[in-house]
Amino acid sequence: MTTCKQLEIRLEDRTPQKWCVSLREDVFKKFLSQGSPMTHKVFGDGSLFSPLLFGKFFDPSDAFPLWEFESDILLSNLRSSGQTTVDWLQTDQDYVLKAELPGVEKNDVQVYVENGKVVEISGQWKQQKESKSSDWRSGHWWEHGYVRRLELPEDADWKNIEAHVKSDMFLEVRIPKNSSDCDISEGNDVRSKNSESV
């Protein structure tokens, strides 16, 4: 039996400084194309927006990553686990975004709408293995953050966006379309009010 949990859509991000650096995929691709073989081992051939871009190389939970650093094996496994299948489609009534996020919980995903123009899906994957030792330094944990920002089409009804997590694995975001009849009639009403006030 599949479970479906509705997510809250937030209209303001309570942590506005978390993504303050603007990055572009074309700049990153240019950097990779001019890089050495070591650049490709560290960054891979992945996307700038991959949640595991640097892999274990910059993992703050591992104090000595270079001791066991075998880039070909280690980074390829991490890169493949961080690649998520995302489908974006539209119907006559709405736009639909479907993403596969294995092991995601309802509280791990946040959906924000920024100024009615951008929808941001963000969250964190956390893993903590229980340690039988009472020494807190011997625990094994990791945490990865991810974010996807999508510009909304002009006819998107951002006030009625719905997001659901199904079976603790699939995220579905539905963005209704504004009906063109309503927009045209509202536009005519606005023009007529403006012309009467002149």
From TrEMBL:
> Which SUPFAM superfamilies does the annotation name?
HSP20-like chaperones
Pfam families, per database record? HSP20 (PF00011)
Q: Which residues cross the membrane?
A: none
Domain SHSP stretches: 77-193
Q: Which CDD domains match?
A: ACD_ScHsp26_like (cd06472)
Q: In which family does this protein belong, per the annotation?
A: Belongs to the small heat shock protein (HSP20) family.
State the protein's name.
SHSP domain-containing protein
- Taxonomic lineage from the root: Eukaryota, Viridiplantae, Streptophyta, Embryophyta, Tracheophyta
